[in-house]
Protein: Nad dependent epimerase dehydratase
Organism: Stemphylium lycopersici
Amino acid sequence: MAHNILLIGGHGKVAQLLTPLLLAKSWNVTSMIRTASQQPTIEKLGQGQPGKLSVLVSSVADVKSENDAKGILDQVKPDWVVWSAGAAGKGGAEMTFAVDRDAAIAFTKASINTPSVKKFLTVSYLSSRRGRAPWWNDEDWASAQKVNNEILPDYFKAKVAADEVLTVLSNDRVAREEKEGVAANERFCGISLRPGTLTEQPAGNVNMGKIGAGDKVSRATVAEVTAKVLEKEGVRGWVDFVDGQEEIATALDNHAICHGLIKRQKFRLPKIDVDLTSEVLHEGTHGVDLRVELGNVVLLAAQSGLILAFLKDLATPYPIRLYLLMASEEHFSNGSNLLFGGKAQGKVVRRYLKRLLPAFQGVLGELEQPARAGESRASSSAGCL
């Protein structure tokens, strides 16, 4: 199928590497660039390619609202949107927030609220998170804090805000589509690509999933991963990656398994363990997220109903562990703090458990709580968020 792709920030380094890869798949690309002087460079990227390349001269900085972004979507009529724009440190904090936060959020909202747009992919970065990833060591955490608080504080604030909007609104749309009976392979895919520090090296293999914050990845590899993520059915959510040992296709297969893209069959489920973990998936949502581990398979959902519906039809010989992942500005050190440590946070979790646990008792059987939240968790070779 010849997809129509709006590539925002088409003159950027990653976007220029990505454009020929998309066109080579016979996809049509509209490259959105800032000035007409950039047009000859972009047009050369389409020479000899089976896909059609169009150029749209329109500055991202001029997009001030969802309506502004919707006007561009109506003009281009894409079914996939790729955000690869950025202020690149030019224009100070004002331009950073105008482009990396406000315009990014405007396009995110407009895309998610446009039924014909089926995928929205943003190129973010590995440390765009408010809390410490559970698998990071002290060096990783120090590296992330240095980047986010000292080197690029405005960029961090802008990117993490845009990432949160994408996560929350994508989950909401998927939940609506599931309720409306939209087939699984036709539901919206919101994707946040989260590469490490960018280099100019050739494209290569990757490590994907639970990776350190200070690692690097080439821009060429980012372009390759972007093209393959778009091509693969059903990939959504956060995709952390750096240079590594796995071929991109293999790493993505493992990532897809992590996110529950497996065949459903009838099966009597074993008992599950309930764990209150300190892991923070993202900040800014309302309520609690769910994570379920089935052996080496990890499922994520924004609403308990999605997990319940999935588990009712899921075949697995593995023990099941259920995690509650709560959005919070504070990184809780252990599960008891997550449940009881914060005033508002503790109340939210307790209210949620009162609603959630009876539903699971009827479906999944006995519920037990492990001794502590920080114990090791099973994951695939790629690691899962």
About this structure: The first strand starts at residue 4 and ends at 8. Residues 257-385 have pLDDT under 50 and may be disordered.
